[in-house]
Structure formats: structure tokens, C-alpha cells
């Protein structure tokens, strides 16, 4: 969970610096690591996926309230590959040229929601 928090801070820092593609990716990483922290805490030994939607499905098997985060998980899943690899996007634009502040702000909000709700579930 500490790394999920650090990744969210890095996402905010990248946003402030105008590095929106990295902000999006770091927000995705924050959400992924928060959900994995929850699953590890609940006894999972090995988690191979990077899909937040898949992770959320596993979390919801343990606590139904996780399904309220479905839109946030799907949002962040869309930023895992194309924020880092130019061939993940169509056309000639590099990720640094493609992503804008609105994308990063959306990703940060989704990561914040996942992180806060996951931390709450671990406290309950």
C-alpha cells in the first residue's frame, strides 16, 4: 500500500510538471498496487495480471463494495500500455504528445478513489 501511495504522489508530481503520459501511467500503477495490496492482505500468494478490472473482480468476491470502483478500474486499464509505448497509439504521435491534462486529472481521480476505498476496506 505504501508503494501505491508513492505512485499516486509521483502521478501528481508528473501532472504538475506537465508530463501527462507519466501521470496517467503512475496513476494506473497506484490503483493496481492498491488492489494487489488488498488481495495479498487477504491471503493471495501470486497475482499475475496488471488489469485493474480483473483485480477488482477478485476483490469483489471478498467484498462486494469493490464493484462501485468498476468505472475507475476500466479507466485506468486504458492507460497501462499506450502511455509508455508509441506503437500503443495510432498515428505518429508519441505518448508525450498525445496525452493532455484532462487525461491525467481523470486518472488521478480514479486512482484516488481506488486507493481510498481500498484502504478503508483494509481498516474495516
List keywords for this structure.
single chain, 124 residues, mainly alpha, Four Helix Bundle (Hemerythrin (Met), subunit A), 68% helix
What does it look like?
Helix content is 68%, strand content 0%. With 124 residues, it is an all-alpha fold. It has a single domain, classed as Four Helix Bundle (Hemerythrin (Met), subunit A), CATH 1.20.120. It is globular and about 45 Å long. The model has no long low-confidence stretch (mean pLDDT 96).
How are the secondary structure elements laid out?
Layout: H1 2-17, H2 20-41, H3 52-62, H4 70-77, H5 95-98, H6 101-123
Helix pairs in contact: 1-2, 1-6, 2-3, 2-6, 4-6
CATH topology: Four Helix Bundle (Hemerythrin (Met), subunit A)
Low-confidence regions: none
Shape: globular
Structural class: mainly alpha
Number of helices: 6
DSSP strand content: under 5%
**Helix amount, in percent?**
55-70%
What's the average pLDDT?
A: 96
Series of H and E elements: HHHHHH
Count of individual domains? 1
Using only C-alpha atoms, the radius of gyration works out to 14 Å
Spell out the CATH superfamily. Answer: Nucleotidyltransferases  domain 2
| CATH uppermost class | Mainly Alpha
CATH architecture descriptor name: Up-down Bundle
Q: Determine the N-to-C terminus distance.
A: 16 Å
Main β-sheet description: none
Amino acid at each position: 500500500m505504501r508503494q501505491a501511495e508513492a505512485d499516486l504522489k509521483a502521478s501528481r508530481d508528473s501532472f504538475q510538471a506537465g508530463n501527462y503520459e507519466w501521470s496517467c501511467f503512475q496513476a494506473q500503477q497506484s490503483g493496481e498496487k492498491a488492489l494487489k495490496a488488498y488481495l495479498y492482505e487477504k491471503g493471495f500468494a501470486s497475482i499475475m495480471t496488471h488489469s485493474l478490472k480483473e483485480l477488482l473482480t477478485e476483490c469483489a468476491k471478498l467484498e462486494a463494495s469493490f464493484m462501485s470502483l468498476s468505472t475507475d478500474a476500466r479507466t485506468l486499464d486504458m492507460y497501462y500500455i499506450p502511455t509508455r509505448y508509441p506503437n500503443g497509439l495510432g498515428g505518429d504521435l508519441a505518448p508525450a504528445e498525445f496525452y493532455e491534462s484532462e487525461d491525467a486529472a481523470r486518472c488521478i481521480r480514479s486512482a484516488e478513489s481506488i486507493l481510498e476505498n481500498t484502504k478503508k476496506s483494509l481498516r474495516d
